[in-house]
Amino acid sequence: MVAMMVVMSMMVMMTVMMTMVVIMMMVMMVIMVMIVVVIMMMIMVMIVMVTMMVVVSVMMPMMMTGFSFRYWIGRNICMQQHDAEGSNDDKEVFWKINEHKWLVIDVKFKI
Predict the structure, then answer these.
(1) Where are the beta strands (DSSP E) in 1-111?
(2) pTM for the complete prediction?
(3) Res. 3 pLDDT band, cuts 50 70 90
(4) Containing H/E element for 68?
(5) Mean per-residue pLDDT of the chain
(6) How many helices (H) and strands (E) does the chain have?
(7) Which residues make Cβ contacts (< 8 Å) with residue 20, sequence separation at least 6?
């Protein structure tokens, strides 16, 4: 009887241990998945940050100086005209564009 009891207790212990190990494995799997998800999120955040940095670095000079895309298009067109005259002054070009009515309907990036 005593031997049977010992064997039974051993079996119970084994099953408890097995369940504990299985639970631990599940917990470990969940933790691993969480870590992987966090790393993926970090990478995504990094990519978004880099793109935002690029956009800001491109847009900020426009915002600061109040330039606009149309101004740049007009400026390039006027520059091609100016290159023959050999004058590259921005203000002169700007007034030329104003004469050409490039900046009448304009979206300026002013803060």
Answers:
(1) none
(2) 0.34
(3) confident
(4) none
(5) 71
(6) 3, 0
(7) none
C-beta separation of 58 from 109 below 8 A: no
Closest CA relative to residue 61, chosen from 73, 50, 72, 51:
72
Q: Tokens 């979206």, residue?
A: 107
pLDDT band at 93 (very low <50, low <70, confident <90, very high): low
At 58, give phi and psi (nearest 5°): -75, -40
Tally of residues, the chain = 111
- pLDDT > 80? residue 35: yes
Distance separating alpha carbons of residues 12 and 109, to the nearest angstrom: 74
Say how many CA atoms lie within 13 Å of 6 toward its Cβ.
3
Distance CA 71, CA 56 (A): 19
Structure-token match 């992987």, residue found: 36
